[in-house]
Amino acid sequence: MATNGTNDNNGPIERIIKAATKIEANELKATILSFLFVFTLMAAYFILRPVRDALSSDWSDAELSWLWTSTFFFSFVAVSVYGAVMSRVQFKNLVPGVYAFFSFSFFAFYFGSSFVENPAYIDKSFYVWLSVFSLFHVSVFWSFMSDLFSRNQAPRLFGIIATGASTGAIVGPTIPTFFADSLGATNLMLIAAVMLLIPIVIIRELEKLKVSELGNKNVQADLSAQQAIGKNPFAGFELFFRKPFLLGIGLFILLYVAISTFVYFEIKNLLVDVDRDIRTQIWGAIDLAVNSLAIVTAVFATGRLATKFGMSVTLALIPVLIVFGLLIVAIAPVIAVVAGLQIARRAGNYAITRPGREMLFTVVDRETRFKAKPVIDIVVYRGGDMLTAWGFTALTAGLGLGLGAVAAIGAGIAAVWAVVGAYLGRSYHRTAVAADAAAAAAE
Predict the structure, then answer these.
(1) What three-state secondary structure class fits 215?
(2) For 364-397, what is each residue's pLDDT tens digit?
(3) For the chain: N or C, fewer Cβ within 10 A?
């Protein structure tokens, strides 16, 4: 059985790989397969995502708001059910079972959309279901990785494996962007459903490598936190409402969600008269641009921004840019302008705002991270989706405001978002300084 994989008899290729990447010879096959695993997951998801988003223009603002309301409740239930299943099913069966389940569900949507005369309800179910899928596909993958590699291997290998997710997020949208018109949006479901079967084969091979080449027979994933979250999703509410810092994070996310909703609905309404396959291409192109820009920004800007200018600037930067972007939309509410704003907003979130937001949890205790963070990430985020969707509907269907007027209101919300980000950055700095001083005094 392999132990930790150093082997003086490694060939020149293995020695070059180790020097360049720190991957030992016995870890190479497992690392490549893990890369392909997450690459396939992300590519499949980003093939399906434009298909989902293209459907939104078929529905009124009120209909879409109801779907977002359904997404909130189904997501909440799904997380709880997953936690219960996790505590009863062996992990080696749970992971392939999750991907097989979702694969067959997308096969069902494909056949339903293709052969049902009026697939309106199937389309709406697919729209909600893909949002549920997005909660699980990568989360389950990383749980499996923590069960596969040892604590010594993970720091060296996880960064390399994670590039598979970034690559898949770029390759996936290229398929709907360039081929949705010729293949048809519905057939993209079939492609993604088949792709989700590939990880099942990879999982079986990785399970063998875990025991043989990796020598990690006794490594077990620590899923206690996820299980506790699944069984008791209300555990963090008391912590959340008791701490102003957490309330500030919740408000920051709620304002982010509000802006996301406003921009998403505006694109949806601008594409009403566009053919569904062309819509899929447009949404795919947006995803492709977002993911490409996010990677470049994350590599070259995020770390420098946070270390040089601090958390206040990091958290407030994208909201300030969105203020100006929405003011431009208010003047020229056309698809090219709104799509550009969507690209800047999402790429900025992935590369700057989201990493900065996650840094905020480094200054809270472990109990808060495990109990209050799920309340923020699931209840506040998905609940914010639901509430702001209805808010947008009230402005358009209720008050009859046009896209320009709604964009102006969004600019005001983004301004408040920037102020909250600056406040959180200052609070983070004060808390970090106090913690460092306490640690120094204790030494």
Answers:
(1) coil
(2) 776 676 567 767 877 788 888 899 999 999 999 9
(3) C
CATH of the domain at 434: 1.20.1250.20
- Per-residue pLDDT tens over the stretch 226-260: 444 445 555 567 778 888 888 999 999 999 999 99
DSSP state of 349: I
CB 370 within 8 A of CB 226: no
Phi, psi of 22 (to 5 degrees): 70, 15
pTM, full prediction: 0.78
pLDDT of residue 10: 60
Considering its fold, how many domains does the chain have in total? 2
| CB 59 within 8 Å of CB 67 | yes
Q: Are residues 165 and 298 in the same domain?
A: no
Burial 192-217 (b: 16+ CB within 10 A, else e): bbebbbbbeebbeebbebbeebbbbe
- Residues 189 and 87 reside in one and the same domain: yes
Using CA atoms, how far apart are residues 249 and 158, in angstroms rounded to an integer? Answer: 28
In this structure, the answer to whether residues 1 and 56 fall within a common structural domain is yes
> What is the domain range of residue 43?
1-229
